[in-house]
Write a structure and sequence with these properties.
- The structure is a single chain.
- This protein is an alpha+beta fold and 69 residues long.
- It has one domain: Alpha-Beta Plaits, CATH 3.30.70.
- The protein is built from two helices and four strands, in the order E-H-E-E-H-E.
- It has a four-stranded antiparallel β-sheet, covered by helices on one side.
- The longest helix has 13 residues.
- The radius of gyration is 11 Å and the shape is globular.
């Protein structure tokens, strides 16, 4: 991981299909028993962060939380 990259965790409502991980900057996808999913991984900059947020919005995914780790 590039030292300039920041790790992020997106928590969303529902269980996303695994194929979305590829479109979402190769973020690691984990399904949770409470019906939510987390996507975790490094993003290079604010532009990439906004790209992921825009894609989640366009997919109609309900974002529950976003954390920089």
């Amino acid at each position: 991981m590039n030292s300039d990259m920041t790790m992020y965790e997106f928590r969303v409502d529902g269980h996303l299909d695994a194929h979305w991980s590829t479109m979402l900057c190769e973020l690691t996808l984990v399904h949770h028993g409470d019906g939510t999913s987390t996507l975790t991984g490094p993003l290079a900059d604010q532009a990439q962060l906004h790209g992921v947020l825009a894609l989640l919005r366009d997919l109609g995914v309900h974002l529950l939380s976003l954390r920089a780790l």
